[in-house]
């Protein structure tokens, strides 16, 4: 009965146009696989773009919000989980995802990758940030997958599951 | 796009036969309204019974788990959110529910009612524990609804939403 | 090496003059025992009064704050722990206290008592709220101690430790 | 009245002999400055070594524990804060530290550095892991300080405070 959940993590306010495009495409493809999309739930950046992508293909979207109220929530969420625990909710994001895809890089995203690895989760990195790939790949090689495209990310997720 | 979420809270291992029956019926009726059921997600007591009830009518079930891994999860969950934060997850349970229904009473349930009231959520009490009704009704009268049956609980939830 | 920690919980903005007076006296007596005082750390109500009481006798004061920054902190804290997790921090308050003393009553305080009982902690109730005493005493009789004065509360804590 | 808190973060079970030695020295020097030492509180690795170092110079030691009970606690803690929230407590570690010193590297440590940067905290890196220095320094240059020795770490902390 349990559904597969794919977490897409990435920058909020600082996301680049390319990251937003990738996030939207990831959300769309995740939905098309019949997987549930999980994000940090805010109405900005990779979270919002991925959720909108998933909804464009009638996927189910979950947001694990840092806040305890309705402010700043993505309009593209089906299910809003309010944690009121700020960035500590990043640990819930990754523990609840069968696979974590990092789309872009930033301090929040780095914390999610690190917490995922600490929790022995598999993480797929799709980012232009070369230093992050070198660092995380060395940190826990067998759990880190580096991909070059959205299509690769989905194929890798499929292989991992 | 956001779906309505009804939280059903109640005892785990110590739930009575009557509470389990009520929880199952609550889950079933919640699903029949098209609402999502949210529980604490474990495979015992009111959480498990409500989730099974919801699934019996093809509802969608979310569990907010105290643990960080697969042990002790209800088989009747569609979506498992792993918090790994023990009873502190009770705050997430209530903040994420549009209405909270307490089915039975115990220390964990009491904490959820109190956290719900602290967060200005509406709480419906369905329990034989008279002292809890007197206490919580006095604590925040305008947010506490005392009901005598599962059907009353659902009707009250509908009126609140 | 580990020091004894006594948690004093109670209303914030809504604390009565009597509760504030009791909280100050509790903090003072806790410090005089050589115990550390733990509160919710905000600059209002029972938290603030107890912390000021402890400092008046050169005690050590810890505040477990709901916020992630300096706003609203009691001036009487030696050690500020910033959780940024709102009322979910109430579980940390009680798990970290060797004994919990509830001074007054409210939704937040009720959540702390309930979480303490869920975690099998001993709780001392000093409050005019009769309904809360009846409810919590019935909920877990062997862990709940009802006292009538600050001096009784401290004597009871000493007996429990 | 508020005391200065320095967080020392680093590997647990996998800490190297050199990291343990540095951690002990850091704890000792932190105590000698009159600062409070904050760690993750467990009885292994950098946490335990730093706490023992601080106690060797009569410092005050706080541990923010991932667990909710006494198992696995460092003997060198004066104050144990039980979160029962696993690695999500890493956010509390860094939010509660005036300066964070990373001594060594690992997934947990990386999550703490990232969460610290997300929360706009200053982080001092003392590690042989070159890739981590390159990555984090690029991520938020103005908040990351790279040092080559324990003495440098303390001097840098002093300059930051």
Write the layout of secondary structure elements.
Four copies of one chain form a homotetramer.
Chain A: E1 5-9, H1 17-32, E2 36-39, H2 45-56, E3 61-65, E4 79-82, H3 89-95, E5 99-103, H4 107-118, E6 123-126, H5 130-139, E7 144-146, H6 150-160
Helix pairs in contact in A: 1-2, 1-6, 3-4
GO cellular component, one term (chains A, B, C, D): cytosol
Pfam families (chains A, B, C, D): LDcluster4 (PF18306)
InterPro entries (chains A, B, C, D): CHP00725, LDcluster4, LOG_family_nucleotidases
Explain the overall architecture:
Four copies of one chain form a homotetramer. The first copy, chain A, is α/β, with parallel strands linked by helices and 161 residues long. The first copy, chain A, has one domain: Rossmann fold. The first copy, chain A, is built from six helices and seven strands, in the order βαβαββαβαβαβα. In chain A, helix 1 packs parallel to helix 2, helix 1 packs across helix 6 and helix 3 packs across helix 4. The radius of gyration of chain A is 14 Å and the shape is globular. The two termini of chain A are 16 Å apart. The mean pLDDT of chain A is 98. Chains in contact: A-B, A-C, A-D, B-C, B-D, C-D. The interface between A and B is medium-sized, with 25 and 25 residues. Chains A, B, C, D: It holds the Pfam family LDcluster4. Chains A, B, C, D: InterPro entries: CHP00725, LDcluster4, LOG_family_nucleotidases. Chains A, B, C, D: This is TIGR00725 family protein.
């Amino acid at each position: 009965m349990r559904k597969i959940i794919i977490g897409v993590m990435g920058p909020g306010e600082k996301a680049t146009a390319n990251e937003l495009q990738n996030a939207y495409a990831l959300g769309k493809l995740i939905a098309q696989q019949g997987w549930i999309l999980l994000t940090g739930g805010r109405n900005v950046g990779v979270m919002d773009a991925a959720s909108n992508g998933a909804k464009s293909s009638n996927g189910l979207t979950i947001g694990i919000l840092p806040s305890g109220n309705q402010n700043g929530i993505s309009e593209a969420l089906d299910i809003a989980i309010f944690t009121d625990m700020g960035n500590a909710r990043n640990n819930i994001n990754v523990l609840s995802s069968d696979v974590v895809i990092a789309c872009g890089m930033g301090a929040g995203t780095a914390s999610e990758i690190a917490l995922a690895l600490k929790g022995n989760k598999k993480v797929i990195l799709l980012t232009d940030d070369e230093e992050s790939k070198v660092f995380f790949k060395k940190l826990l090689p067998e759990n880190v997958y580096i991909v070059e495209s959205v299509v690769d990310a989905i194929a890798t997720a499929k292989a991992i599951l």
